[in-house]
Amino acid sequence: MRLALLSDLHANRQALDACLAHAQAAGAERLAFLGDLVGYGGDPAYVVQRVMDLAAEGALVVKGNHDGYAADAAGDGKTLGQAGALWTQEQLSAAQRRFLAELPLTLHQPPLLLVHASAAAPERWHYVETPLLAALSLDAACEPPVGGPDVHYVFGGHVHRQTLYYRGGTGKLMPFTPTAGVPVPVPRHRRWLATVGSVGQPRDGRTDAMYALFDDVAQQLTFHRVPYDVPSAAGAIRATPLPPFFADRLEQGR
Question: What is the distance between the alpha carbons of residues 120 and 140, in angstroms, rounded to a whole number?
């Protein structure tokens, strides 16, 4: 099975469509969405509905922090996050909000564990940015109630960057920065954790969308960068009451 791993879509219609087309051309047989379908971007209803339709066809989906904000937006809208969540909620139908609210925080699909942030207290949305934090997430994924000893791969997002960690002979997790388009061997006798980057809002200084493709037969993980129509995505934001800053950072890859 070739599983496409897409995270942090952030209501970016153009980036989502480009990544789905790329994944199909690359031979993806199933899709997994690792949270934050909404937030920041200008097309939340389109993105949520597209993922709902794909979920009905068998795609796997877990909840991200922005999905929770939009499903149950609270506050007076004075902060950027509150304003974005309140506006996003207003764009979604009741069925779309219910879909977001009912998403699980993790999915245990041996030998995989899917999560948006860290498997260590996934409801607290910890960023997995260092080998130590990656080790905490991987350890939690390999134990009940989150996962179990049959987990060898933990896939998540949240940090908007592409990084692979593996457990070396010393027991410590080692970070590895992948090269886009180059398959990385991920043999099952080790344990691995990957952050697959962001489809809808890259933050590494490049604007190309990110996703990854996992081949469980070849035991390979390939990280991809996909160009898309950034001006249209930024224009969709500027056509809304959302802060223009959200469009600016999209154009800068920040």
Answer: 5
User: What is the value of pTM for the model shown?
Assistant: 0.96
Residues 6+ apart with CB under 8 A from 102: none
Residue 159 burial (CB count, 10 A): 19
List, for residues 111-160, the tens digit of each pLDDT value. 999 999 999 999 999 999 999 999 999 999 999 999 999 999 999 999 99
Distance CA 45, CA 26 (A): 27
DSSP secondary structure string for all residues of the chain: -EEEEE---TT-HHHHHHHHHHHHHTT--EEEE-S--SSSSS-HHHHHHHHHHHHHTT-EE---HHHHHHHT--S-S-SHHHHHHHHHHHHS-HHHHHHHHT--SEEEETTEEEESS-SSSGGG-----SHHHHHHHHHHHTSTTT--TT--EEEE-SSSSEEEEEE-TTS-EEEE---TT--EE--TTS-EEEEE--SS---SS--SEEEEEEETTTTEEEEEEE---HHHHHHHHHTSSS-HHHHHHHHHT-
Q: What is the pLDDT of residues 229-240, one digit of tens each?
A: 999 999 999 999
